[in-house]
Write a structure and sequence with these properties.
- There is one protein chain.
- This protein has 115 residues and is an all-beta fold.
- It has no helices and eleven strands.
- The strands form two sheets. Strands 2, 4, 5, 6, 9, 10 and 11 form a seven-stranded mixed sheet that branches. A four-stranded antiparallel sheet has the order 1-3-8-7, with no helix packed on it.
- β9 and β10 form a beta hairpin.
- The chain starts with a strand and ends with a strand.
Length: 115
């Protein structure tokens, strides 16, 4: 069965960095586009970044452009989200999603940006 497991979240001070990982299994990862979303308390889940199956094309929400880098390692079935210059408003649960069929979600990893 499809499984997506996020990790790498935590508590970080403003201006800090984190690298989130999403390990995938149960489908052909190398032919599947992937996305990261986030959901802050009391807000709707929002798109953060996407990457094509080969990693040649990426897109970002405006609020993270220049501060985030999405990448993937198809040999490891893993997609990453590097977050730099973190701000308190980046605080959210971050989810990865496999763009396959109806779409598959991980359980999320909490990112808290606070001094």
């Amino acid at each position: 069965q499809v499984q997506l497991v996020e990790s790498g979240g935590g508590l970080v001070q403003p201006g800090g960095s984190l690298r989130l990982s999403c390990a995938a299994s149960g489908f052909t990862f190398s032919s599947t586009a992937m996305r990261w979303y986030r959901q802050a308390p009391g807000k709707e889940r929002e798109f953060v970044a996407s990457i094509s199956s080969a990693g040649s094309s990426t897109n970002y929400v405006d609020s993270v452009k220049g501060r985030a880098i999405i990448s993937r390692d198809n040999a490891k079935n893993t997609v990453y989200l590097q977050l730099n210059s973190l701000k308190p408003e980046d605080t959210a649960v971050y989810y990865c999603k496999a763009q396959r069929g109806v779409g598959y979600w991980g359980q999320g990893t909490q990112v808290t940006v606070s001094s």
